[in-house]
Amino acid sequence: MYPYLDIFGMSIPSYGLCMAVGILLSFYICFVRARKNKLDIDSLIVIAACAVGLGLVGAKLLYLFVSCDINEVFERLSRGDISDLAGGGQVFYGGLIMGIIGAFLGVRISGSCGETALYCDAVVPAIPLGHAFGRIGCFLAGCCYGAPYTGFCAVTFPSVGVTEPVFPIQLLEAVLNLIIFAILLIPRKRLKSGFATLYLYLTLYSVVRFTLEFFRGDEIRGFAQGLSTSQWISIGLFVCGFVLILITAKQKKLASQAV
Q1: What sign does the CA torsion over 213, 214, 217, 218 have?
Q2: How far is residue 242's CA from residue 237's CA, in Å, rounded to a whole number?
Q3: Residue 249: its pLDDT value, please?
Q4: Distance of CA 12 to CAs 26, 99, 138, 177, Å?
Q5: Is residue 74's pLDDT more than 80?
Q6: Helix or strand or coil: residue 224?
Q7: Residue 252: in which H helix or E strand, if any?
Q8: Region for 24 from its dihedrals, namely left if φ exceeds 0, alpha if ψ lies in -120 to 50, beta otherwise
Q9: DSSP state at residue 124
Q10: Sign of the dihedral through C-alpha 203, 60, 133, 194
């Protein structure tokens, strides 16, 4: 579509620009929610930096795992060739899983373990917001495109060799991520726990991602038993998120009965 945008005479990669905008907006949302809960901003910066840093590493590692011969990657790295790491290509789920690990690491580093749930509630809604802008970047760059499709809003990506009309799956996922973002901002009295925000996000997005994978047209994402790598991860995250929501609701019910 538009892999590069001309801004003030400079040619800027559209995907990188969208990623940067998404990260900045996510930081802003985290900042506002942290201030609302009277959380320490310096700790928030540490947590966010660890989450983003490890998230980017995880996204790249999972991409290499599903799309490259790992033995060849290690062989090139042993020769000092870092082209596999420096090149494009990321898988969101790798970034999400490593980002969550990074966030908890940041909590420990910042000495905020006693407020982990509050920081979780402040940070999690920013994930689908940033992801939405990442998918817009995918649309502009022409990656993660949809299956062949000739109906309403069909698009082509001649810059990456996709000249036949395909489904604009990237934009649909961006819209659904924004809807999840809005849902996570709604107070939930029945699940009054900061971690419940994370559980709800994992449950909602795993359903969205599992379904959307059926409408993807690119093949570079790994398959096993007829399902993509992301669909298998979606199943695991849905089970974890849904079970944890039930446990949280049960604990709250027992606590209210004990009062």
Answers
A1: positive
A2: 8
A3: 80
A4: 21, 26, 14, 25
A5: no
A6: strand
A7: helix 229-258
A8: alpha
A9: T
A10: positive
Lowest mean pLDDT among 74-78, 188-192, 241-245: 188-192
Rounded CA separation 176/211 (Å): 12
CB 62 within 8 A of CB 69: no
Under DSSP, is residue 165 helix (H, G, I), strand (E, B) or coil? strand
- Please identify which residue in the block is written with the tokens 């992801």: 131
Q: How far is the C-alpha of 144 from the C-alpha of 63, rounded, in Å?
A: 12
Could you tell me the CA-to-CA distances from 253 to 100, 199, 239, 246, 250 in Å, in that order? 28, 17, 21, 11, 5
In whole angstroms, give the CA distance from residue 256 to residue 259. Answer: 5
Q: What does the pLDDT look like over 206-257, one tens digit per residue?
A: 999 999 999 998 876 677 788 988 999 999 999 999 999 888 888 777 766 6
What pLDDT does 83 receive? 57
Q: Which two tokens stand for residue 30?
A: 């985290």
Q: Which residue has the tokens 């005479």?
A: 9
DSSP label at residue 162: E
Q: Worst-scoring range by mean pLDDT, 7-11, 41-45, 75-79, 115-119?
A: 75-79
Residues whose CB falls within 8 Å of the CB of residue 193, separated by 6 or more in sequence, listed in order:
117, 248, 252
DSSP state of 216: B
Token reading at 183: 């849902």
Query: Has residue 1 got a pLDDT over 70?
Result: no
Q: Cα(109)–Cα(37) distance, rounded to whole angstroms?
A: 20
Strand, helix or coil for residue 141: helix
